[in-house]
Protein backbone atom coordinates (compact mmCIF):
# COMPACT_ATOMS: atom_id res chain seq x y z
CA UNK A 1 0.00 0.00 0.00
CA UNK A 2 2.80 2.44 0.90
CA UNK A 3 4.58 1.63 -2.36
CA UNK A 4 1.44 2.44 -4.37
CA UNK A 5 1.03 5.72 -2.47
CA UNK A 6 4.61 6.78 -3.22
CA UNK A 7 4.19 5.91 -6.91
CA UNK A 8 0.98 7.94 -7.02
CA UNK A 9 2.66 10.98 -5.49
CA UNK A 10 5.50 10.84 -8.01
CA UNK A 11 2.95 10.55 -10.81
CA UNK A 12 1.38 13.83 -9.65
CA UNK A 13 4.64 15.77 -9.68
CA UNK A 14 4.55 16.75 -13.39
CA UNK A 15 1.05 18.17 -13.01
CA UNK A 16 2.04 20.10 -9.91
CA UNK A 17 5.06 21.50 -11.71
CA UNK A 18 2.94 22.66 -14.64
CA UNK A 19 0.43 24.24 -12.30
CA UNK A 20 3.15 26.13 -10.49
CA UNK A 21 4.41 27.70 -13.72
CA UNK A 22 7.38 30.07 -13.93
CA UNK A 23 8.59 32.27 -11.09
CA UNK A 24 6.45 35.23 -12.13
CA UNK A 25 3.97 36.81 -9.70
CA UNK A 26 0.50 35.79 -10.80
CA UNK A 27 -2.49 38.12 -10.81
CA UNK A 28 -5.65 37.23 -8.93
CA UNK A 29 -8.24 36.00 -11.43
CA UNK A 30 -11.05 36.53 -8.92
CA UNK A 31 -13.53 34.48 -10.95
CA UNK A 32 -17.10 33.63 -10.00
CA UNK A 33 -18.56 30.38 -11.37
CA UNK A 34 -22.03 31.55 -10.33
CA UNK A 35 -21.85 34.56 -12.65
CA UNK A 36 -23.64 33.27 -15.75
CA UNK A 37 -23.24 36.57 -17.59
CA UNK A 38 -19.46 36.28 -17.22
CA UNK A 39 -19.53 32.64 -18.32
CA UNK A 40 -21.60 33.53 -21.38
CA UNK A 41 -19.19 36.30 -22.38
CA UNK A 42 -16.29 33.90 -21.83
CA UNK A 43 -17.94 31.27 -24.04
CA UNK A 44 -18.40 33.85 -26.79
CA UNK A 45 -14.73 34.85 -26.57
CA UNK A 46 -13.58 31.24 -26.69
CA UNK A 47 -15.74 30.30 -29.68
CA UNK A 48 -14.69 33.40 -31.62
CA UNK A 49 -11.00 33.65 -30.78
CA UNK A 50 -9.74 30.30 -29.46
CA UNK A 51 -11.69 27.45 -31.03
CA UNK A 52 -9.99 27.87 -34.41
CA UNK A 53 -6.90 26.21 -32.91
CA UNK A 54 -7.85 24.87 -29.46
CA UNK A 55 -10.48 22.19 -28.96
CA UNK A 56 -12.54 21.21 -25.93
CA UNK A 57 -13.05 17.66 -27.06
CA UNK A 58 -14.40 16.44 -23.70
CA UNK A 59 -17.11 19.10 -23.44
CA UNK A 60 -20.38 19.20 -25.40
CA UNK A 61 -22.09 22.31 -26.74
CA UNK A 62 -25.46 21.26 -25.32
CA UNK A 63 -24.14 20.74 -21.78
CA UNK A 64 -22.34 24.07 -21.96
CA UNK A 65 -25.37 26.02 -23.14
CA UNK A 66 -27.58 24.42 -20.49
CA UNK A 67 -25.18 24.98 -17.61
CA UNK A 68 -24.45 28.66 -18.28
CA UNK A 69 -27.97 29.68 -19.23
CA UNK A 70 -27.78 30.04 -23.02
CA UNK A 71 -30.95 28.95 -24.85
CA UNK A 72 -30.14 26.08 -27.21
CA UNK A 73 -31.46 27.88 -30.28
CA UNK A 74 -29.38 31.01 -29.59
CA UNK A 75 -26.27 28.98 -28.81
CA UNK A 76 -26.62 26.94 -31.97
CA UNK A 77 -27.14 30.06 -34.07
CA UNK A 78 -24.47 32.30 -32.57
CA UNK A 79 -21.80 30.02 -31.09
CA UNK A 80 -21.61 27.00 -33.42
CA UNK A 81 -19.88 28.07 -36.63
CA UNK A 82 -19.09 24.78 -38.38
CA UNK A 83 -22.53 23.24 -38.60
CA UNK A 84 -21.93 20.79 -35.75
CA UNK A 85 -24.96 19.41 -33.96
CA UNK A 86 -25.72 20.87 -30.57
CA UNK A 87 -25.00 17.50 -28.95
CA UNK A 88 -21.49 17.35 -30.45
CA UNK A 89 -18.23 17.80 -28.59
CA UNK A 90 -16.54 21.18 -29.02
CA UNK A 91 -13.98 20.41 -31.72
CA UNK A 92 -12.36 22.15 -34.68
CA UNK A 93 -11.18 20.98 -38.08
CA UNK A 94 -7.51 21.93 -37.80
CA UNK A 95 -5.09 19.20 -38.85
CA UNK A 96 -2.68 18.38 -36.03
CA UNK A 97 0.28 17.81 -38.36
CA UNK A 98 -0.29 21.13 -40.11
CA UNK A 99 -0.72 22.89 -36.77
CA UNK A 100 2.57 21.42 -35.54
CA UNK A 101 4.31 22.84 -38.63
CA UNK A 102 2.78 26.28 -38.17
CA UNK A 103 3.16 26.64 -34.40
CA UNK A 104 6.02 24.25 -33.59
CA UNK A 105 3.60 21.98 -31.71
CA UNK A 106 -0.07 21.08 -32.07
CA UNK A 107 -2.25 23.47 -30.01
CA UNK A 108 -3.34 21.65 -26.83
CA UNK A 109 -6.89 20.75 -25.93
CA UNK A 110 -8.13 23.25 -23.33
CA UNK A 111 -10.83 21.23 -21.59
CA UNK A 112 -8.73 20.75 -18.47
CA UNK A 113 -6.26 23.63 -18.74
CA UNK A 114 -7.74 25.46 -15.73
CA UNK A 115 -7.29 22.38 -13.54
CA UNK A 116 -3.71 21.87 -14.71
CA UNK A 117 -2.47 25.46 -14.85
CA UNK A 118 -4.79 27.21 -12.40
CA UNK A 119 -7.05 30.20 -13.02
CA UNK A 120 -4.55 32.81 -11.82
CA UNK A 121 -2.00 31.50 -14.33
CA UNK A 122 -4.48 31.65 -17.22
CA UNK A 123 -5.63 35.17 -16.31
CA UNK A 124 -2.04 36.41 -16.02
CA UNK A 125 -1.10 34.68 -19.28
CA UNK A 126 -3.92 36.40 -21.17
CA UNK A 127 -2.69 39.77 -19.87
CA UNK A 128 1.03 39.16 -20.42
CA UNK A 129 1.57 39.16 -24.19
CA UNK A 130 3.98 41.80 -25.48
CA UNK A 131 5.62 42.88 -28.72
CA UNK A 132 8.72 40.87 -29.61
CA UNK A 133 9.77 41.05 -33.26
CA UNK A 134 12.28 38.23 -32.76
CA UNK A 135 9.43 35.73 -32.37
CA UNK A 136 7.67 34.09 -35.37
CA UNK A 137 4.33 35.74 -34.57
CA UNK A 138 5.83 39.00 -33.35
CA UNK A 139 4.83 38.48 -29.72
CA UNK A 140 6.11 36.85 -26.55
CA UNK A 141 4.64 36.26 -23.11
CA UNK A 142 5.93 37.06 -19.64
CA UNK A 143 4.65 33.88 -17.98
CA UNK A 144 5.25 31.64 -21.02
CA UNK A 145 8.56 32.75 -22.59
CA UNK A 146 9.02 31.87 -26.27
CA UNK A 147 5.34 31.08 -26.60
CA UNK A 148 4.53 29.53 -29.98
CA UNK A 149 1.21 31.23 -30.69
CA UNK A 150 -0.01 34.66 -31.76
CA UNK A 151 -1.77 37.06 -29.43
CA UNK A 152 -5.26 36.12 -30.60
CA UNK A 153 -6.90 38.85 -28.50
CA UNK A 154 -4.66 41.56 -29.94
CA UNK A 155 -7.51 43.36 -31.67
CA UNK A 156 -9.19 43.70 -28.27
CA UNK A 157 -6.16 44.58 -26.12
CA UNK A 158 -3.81 46.11 -28.65
CA UNK A 159 -0.11 45.20 -28.78
CA UNK A 160 1.49 45.77 -25.37
CA UNK A 161 5.13 46.78 -25.09
CA UNK A 162 7.44 45.13 -22.55
CA UNK A 163 8.53 46.69 -19.28
CA UNK A 164 12.10 45.58 -18.54
CA UNK A 165 14.63 45.86 -15.74
CA UNK A 166 18.25 44.86 -15.21
CA UNK A 167 18.75 41.97 -12.79
CA UNK A 168 21.68 39.90 -11.61
CA UNK A 169 21.58 36.21 -12.53
CA UNK A 170 24.48 33.83 -11.91
CA UNK A 171 26.92 36.70 -11.67
CA UNK A 172 25.77 38.40 -14.87
CA UNK A 173 23.50 41.37 -15.51
CA UNK A 174 20.59 40.44 -17.74
CA UNK A 175 17.54 42.29 -19.01
CA UNK A 176 14.27 40.67 -17.97
CA UNK A 177 10.71 41.46 -18.96
CA UNK A 178 8.78 42.07 -15.74
CA UNK A 179 5.52 43.42 -17.11
CA UNK A 180 3.72 44.98 -20.06
CA UNK A 181 2.17 48.31 -20.99
CA UNK A 182 -0.71 48.58 -23.45
CA UNK A 183 -0.30 50.79 -26.51
CA UNK A 184 -3.94 51.88 -26.69
CA UNK A 185 -4.53 50.40 -30.14
CA UNK A 186 -7.08 47.79 -29.02
CA UNK A 187 -10.85 47.97 -29.28
CA UNK A 188 -11.16 47.72 -25.48
CA UNK A 189 -9.99 49.92 -22.66
CA UNK A 190 -7.72 48.40 -20.01
CA UNK A 191 -10.66 47.77 -17.70
CA UNK A 192 -12.73 46.21 -20.47
CA UNK A 193 -9.90 43.89 -21.46
CA UNK A 194 -9.34 42.92 -17.83
CA UNK A 195 -12.98 41.86 -17.67
CA UNK A 196 -12.70 39.96 -20.95
CA UNK A 197 -9.63 38.07 -19.70
CA UNK A 198 -11.45 37.29 -16.46
CA UNK A 199 -14.56 36.12 -18.36
CA UNK A 200 -12.51 33.77 -20.55
CA UNK A 201 -10.69 32.44 -17.50
CA UNK A 202 -14.01 31.91 -15.75
CA UNK A 203 -15.34 29.94 -18.71
CA UNK A 204 -12.23 27.74 -18.85
CA UNK A 205 -12.57 27.08 -15.11
CA UNK A 206 -16.19 26.01 -15.61
CA UNK A 207 -15.29 23.67 -18.50
CA UNK A 208 -12.55 22.05 -16.42
CA UNK A 209 -15.12 20.97 -13.82
CA UNK A 210 -18.70 21.54 -15.05
CA UNK A 211 -20.31 19.86 -12.05
CA UNK A 212 -18.30 21.74 -9.42
CA UNK A 213 -21.11 23.95 -8.13
CA UNK A 214 -23.52 21.02 -8.06
CA UNK A 215 -20.96 18.88 -6.23
CA UNK A 216 -20.33 21.61 -3.66
CA UNK A 217 -24.08 22.00 -3.06
CA UNK A 218 -24.47 18.24 -2.58
CA UNK A 219 -21.46 18.23 -0.25
CA UNK A 220 -23.00 20.90 1.97
CA UNK A 221 -26.24 18.92 2.17
CA UNK A 222 -24.36 15.73 3.02
CA UNK A 223 -22.41 17.47 5.78
CA UNK A 224 -25.67 18.91 7.17
CA UNK A 225 -27.27 15.47 7.11
CA UNK A 226 -24.28 13.93 8.92
CA UNK A 227 -24.38 16.65 11.60
CA UNK A 228 -28.08 16.00 12.23
CA UNK A 229 -27.48 12.23 12.22
CA UNK A 230 -24.67 12.64 14.75
CA UNK A 231 -26.90 14.70 17.07
CA UNK A 232 -29.70 12.14 16.86
CA UNK A 233 -27.30 9.25 17.40
CA UNK A 234 -25.74 11.02 20.41
CA UNK A 235 -29.15 11.70 21.95
CA UNK A 236 -30.20 8.09 21.32
CA UNK A 237 -27.02 6.84 22.98
CA UNK A 238 -27.66 8.97 26.07
CA UNK A 239 -31.26 7.74 26.30
CA UNK A 240 -30.27 4.11 25.77
CA UNK A 241 -27.52 4.11 28.41
CA UNK A 242 -29.33 6.28 30.95
CA UNK A 243 -30.89 3.37 32.81
CA UNK A 244 -27.70 1.31 32.66
CA UNK A 245 -25.72 3.92 34.57
TrEMBL record:
Its main location: membrane. The keyword 4Fe-4S does not apply. SUPFAM superfamilies: Cytochrome c. InterPro entries: Cyt_c-like_dom, Cyt_c-like_dom_sf, Cyt_c1. It holds the Pfam family Cytochrom_C1. Binds 1 heme c group covalently per subunit. GO terms for molecular function: electron transfer activity; heme binding; metal ion binding. Residues 37-211 form the Cytochrome c domain. It is found in: Membrane. Its cofactor is heme c. GO terms for cellular component: membrane. The chain crosses the membrane at residues 218-236. This is Cytochrome c.
